[in-house]
Amino acid sequence: MSQETLSSLEDNLCYRFKDIALLRQALQHRSYVNEQRDLALKDNERLEFLGDAVLELVISHILMKQFPESAEGELTRMRATIVNESRLAAVAQRLNLGQYLLLGRGEALAHGEKKKSILADTLEAVIAAVYMDGGLEPVFEVIKRQFSELLSQVKEKLTEEDFKSQLQELVQARFKVVPHYEVVAERGPDHNKTFEVCLKIGEFLTTHGTGKSKKTAEQAAAQLALEKLKQEGK
Asked: How does pLDDT run across 183-197, given as a tens digit for each residue?
C-alpha cells in the first residue's frame, strides 16, 4: 500500500503517524497475511485486542464527564449503545476504511470490506495504532471526533432502544409476534413537524405515540404499550 494511499486515510483521521508501519499493520486482515510469503508480516488482530480496550476507556471517560449524575448501570448501557459492532462499522464506513483494507483473495471475493465484523475490528486496530504511535491524548481526540455524533445522541438513543427492545423481547416471548409501527399522521410545517405513530401488537393491543421525529414517536408508543401490558398483567 502506497504512502499516498495511507496519507489519505491519515487525512480522514486527522492524525499523522510517526511510524506509518503501525497504520499499515492495522489494515492487514488475517486472510491477507496468510497468503503472503513474508513470514515477518503481522495481521491486525493484536492491535484489535488493544484497540477494544482503548476505545472502552476513552468512551467511558467521556460519558462520565458528559453525564456526571448518571449511575454506573446507566453509563454501562450508554457505552453499550456506542461500543458495539454496528456502531463501529458505521464509523469505519464514514472513514472509508473498507477501501484501505488488505484482504486475502477469498475474503475479497466475499466482499469482506463491507462486512460489519471486519470493519468494526479494523477500526479498533486503527485506534490501537494511533494509541501506540502517539499515546493517550491523540487517540482521545481521534475517538472524540469520530464518535461525536453518537456521543451527542447517546441519551436519546438509549431511551429509544430501551423501550423498543424491551417491548419486542416481551411481545415475542409472550405472544410470538413482532410489534408493528406505522406513521398515521404528520402535523405542522416541514421545519417543525409532529409525528403520530400507531403501534399494533397483533390483535392484543394498540397504542399511539407522538414526537418531533418518527423515532421518538415510536419510543413513546412503545413506552405506553409496556405500561399497559404491565398494568393488565399480560
From this structure: 999 998 888 889 999
Report pLDDT for 190.
84
Q: How many CA atoms lie within 13 A of 34 on its CB side?
A: 9
Given 43, 48, 113, 124, the catalytic residue: 124
| Structure letter (DSSP) for residue 202 | T
Q: Tell me the whole-structure pTM to 2 decimals.
A: 0.69
Reported as a pLDDT band with limits 50, 70 and 90, residue 137 is very high
Q: Using an 8 Å Cβ cutoff, are 177 and 202 in contact?
A: yes
Set 43, 48, 52, 113: catalytic member: 52
Side-chain half-sphere CA neighbours of 10 within 13 A: 17
As beta bridge partners, residue 207 has 199
C-beta neighbour count of 208 within 10 angstroms? 15
**Is 11 known to be catalytic?**
no
Name all domains of the chain by residue range, CATH numbers in brackets: 3-146 (1.10.1520.10), 154-232 (3.30.160.20)
Q: Are 186 and 194 in contact (CB under 8 A)?
A: yes
Dihedral angle, C-alpha 126, 132, 138, 143, nearest 10 °: 30
